[in-house]
Amino acid sequence: xxxxxxxxxxxxxHPRRMDSRERAVLGVSAGLFLATAGVLALVLxxxxxxxxxxxxxxxxxxxxxxxxxxEFGNWFVVPEALAFVPLLLLAPLPFxxxxxxxxxxxxxxxxxxxxxxxRERVLTSSSDCWFSIGPVLVLAAFAPGEASxxxxxxxxxxxxxxxxxxxxxxxxxxxxxxxxxLKTVVDDYLGVLRFDAILAPIAFAITISAIxxxxxxxxxxxxxxxxxxxxxDRRERYTSxxxxxxxxxxxxxxxxxxxxxxDQYTADHSRSVVDLVHAxxxxxxxxxxxxxxxxxxxxxxxxxxxxxxxxxxxxxAALTDSEFEVxxxxxxxxxxxxxxxxxxxARVGEIVRSCHERWDGTGYPDxxxxxxxxxxxxxxxxxxxxxxxxxxxxxRNAMTQKEALEELRAGAGTQFDPVVVDALCDLIEAGxxxxxxxxxxxxxxxxxxxxxxxxxxxx
Length: 459
Known about the structure:
Hypothetical protein af1432; 2 domains; two-stranded antiparallel ribbon; 1% strand; elongated
């Protein structure tokens, strides 16, 4: 899934009630965390004297800093190190996890009031506080007293423990709730890791200075302000990207409607190809980042036939050579239409242009050969051919599934990519994908990556 899609899904999810799985995972996590934090508060020794006003300031400052949110994939990142490091080194160590949970709940109160977060999410805010357990245990074992520069090695170990405990929870959360691939989870977390690793030394230096001069903690203010400006800019850029994605999907649905109005057979055929292409992409393990372009190309691969004269398009007999030359222009016409939209659909147009290129280089319009042909075009070409062979036309009856598969295999290595043919044939023999997609089904498919209306207002 692209980053914009993950951000969009997160924006849409936060104001809603949690589903049963999310509620169970986050609820159990919150309960276990609070129980663990409570046990630590009871059993760990407390060797640090702390002024009550300083403690209140640390918690409230932490809650304010937690409002600076950088959307990052499926969740968001905050400049937490600027608040957590002072709390970890200046507050009574046994109570640090409970104080982290308290600030997490406080930071979400404005979200509860404006409706941008459902109240269930406020109640389970402590589920994401596991990162505080590791460093507290390290410091309790090796440096439980007042912070000092001489303990820098222990503090580095505590930082590593923080990343370790946080990453373990992130993997559990994202894998169970969203089923994200481990690679996606790791890639997202590396962004979090870089963020905290950069800010932690700054926070440590300020905290050491604040041992004798507590007002030094206020020096994080300008940095937090700068980060808030940057986070707001990031939110606005994601909002623009998501609105553009919705515009692309709307354009695709409009073009699909035009094709349906112009020629019902072409429309039904294109929808069935979408199903075959999607299943083949699953079989081949096509990267999620390429799926949207692939699905759009599958639906619009024949959009250029709008420009083909009806007497050629609907001729109840084989085409003459000159008529076939006219028919072959539909891929170029399709690219031209999509090029005029630009952006994502311009890239889809490149796929559409190559959807009749043959593996041996004798296709059209550019006589591309082998892997010169985009993978998406190769998948659409094979799925297109299978669906065409198994569909009744005025000038011939449909082939049986067995006959069509034999034709596909016979064309592997000359007409079609052999790897694509193997994948397509395997999945059809295992159980043919649904090929009765309706207009409403197509809209659902195109809306899978969509963001609920009103996201811009919540950005």
